[in-house]
């Protein structure tokens, strides 16, 4: 997926905010999120709220939502996050800025490594048997965001120039396919009893995984949202857009992910709820 062209300089900044909440009906939180600033040599964990110049280092953000008995789902989502953090500097080395190639192969390799790692642990420990997780990953380089996705967590793009909201990722559910092909409305897909049944995830009994990969060009003022399905349960696309409409002029440090998570939990709260919001400023 590609959008409008962009003219970014090395002085561009990204501002971000991340929040997670167990919700009102769950005793544990199987969601996980991360922010990372990295190059080929080193990586730094980013705080929950902050901003950074987009110079010689890249930034990446991700959300995973684990599935499994006991605390296996919680463990699965954290394995996915840790595996991503460890492998991204290697991909930076493989795809230097001056050779901006398709990232698809590298991102697919990353997802395959996490998948096989989860299966190994699941097969080795009875309490982790069958554990799975979603993973939605956004890798930011100046002017372009490369993404990889599997499951029903989501990546949204909110372009400042045209307004509105676009779902970049595709839900790996039958209900998601029915919605994309026009057989269900947004409301029907949001209330369908089988909306949470995943067709693809990392780990579990899936022999192979084929993530959705692509890239989006962005400009100053654009926003991206990475979120678990707890956000989707609580907020329609229009509701999410309304919550974020003022974020483009927020002062540094404002916790705009908290706005989304709090609104979604107030509205629904039946699932773990996580959001990462990234703004180009």
Helix percent reads: 25-40%
Report the order of strands and helices: EEEEEHHEEEEEHHEEEHHHE
How would you classify the helix and strand content by structural class? Answer: alpha+beta
CATH class division: Alpha Beta
CATH architecture: 4-Layer Sandwich
CATH superfamily: PPM-type phosphatase domain
Question: Would you report the number of β strands?
Answer: 14
Descriptive overview:
The protein contains 7 helices and 14 strands. The chain is α+β, with helices and mostly antiparallel strands and 281 residues long. The chain has a single domain, classed as Phosphatase 2c, domain 1 (4-Layer Sandwich), CATH 3.60.40.10. The longest helix has 23 residues. The N terminus is likely disordered. The strands form 2 sheets. Strands 2, 3, 5, 6, 7, 8, 11 and 12 form an 8-stranded antiparallel sheet that branches. It has a 6-stranded antiparallel sheet with strand order 4-1-14-13-9-10. Helix 1 packs antiparallel against helix 2.
Secondary-structure blueprint:
Elements: E1 13-21, E2 31-38, E3 43-45, E4 49-53, E5 58-67, H1 72-94, H2 104-124, E6 132-133, E7 135-141, E8 144-150, E9 154-158, E10 166-167, H3 174-180, H4 186-191, E11 202-203, E12 212-217, E13 223-227, H5 229-234, H6 237-244, H7 256-267, E14 273-280
Antiparallel strand pairs: 1-4, 1-14, 2-3, 2-5, 5-6, 5-7, 6-11, 7-8, 8-12, 9-10, 9-13, 13-14
């Amino acid at each position: 997926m590609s959008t409008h062209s962009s003219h970014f300089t090395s002085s561009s900044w990204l501002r971000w905010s991340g929040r997670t909440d167990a919700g009102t009906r769950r005793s544990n939180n199987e969601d996980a999120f991360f922010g990372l600033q990295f190059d080929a040599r080193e990586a730094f964990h980013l705080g929950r709220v902050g901003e950074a110049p987009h110079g010689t280092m890249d930034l990446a953000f991700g959300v995973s939502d684990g599935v499994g008995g006991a605390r296996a789902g919680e463990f699965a989502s954290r394995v996915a996050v840790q595996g991503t953090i460890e492998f991204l500097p290697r991909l930076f080395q493989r795809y230097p800025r001056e050779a901006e190639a398709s990232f698809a192969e590298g991102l697919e390799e990353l997802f395959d490594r996490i998948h096989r790692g989860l299966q190994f642990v699941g097969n080795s420990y009875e309490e982790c048997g069958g554990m799975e997780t979603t993973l939605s990953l956004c890798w930011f380089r100046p002017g372009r965001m490369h993404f990889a996705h599997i499951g029903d967590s989501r990546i949204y793009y909110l372009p400042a120039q045209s307004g509105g909201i676009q779902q970049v990722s595709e839900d790996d559910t039958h209900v998601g396919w029915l919605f994309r092909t026009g057989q269900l409305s947004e409301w029907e897909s949001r209330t369908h009893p089988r909306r949470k049944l995943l067709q693809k995830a990392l780990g579990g009994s899936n022999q192979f995984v084929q993530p959705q990969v692509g890239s989006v060009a962005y400009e100053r003022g654009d926003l991206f949202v990475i979120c678990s399905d707890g956000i989707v349960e609580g907020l329609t696309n229009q509701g999410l857009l309304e919550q974020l409409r003022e974020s483009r002029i927020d002062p540094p440090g404002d916790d705009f992910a908290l706005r989304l998570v709090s609104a979604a939990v107030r509205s629904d709260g039946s699932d773990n709820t996580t959001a990462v919001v990234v703004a180009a400023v």
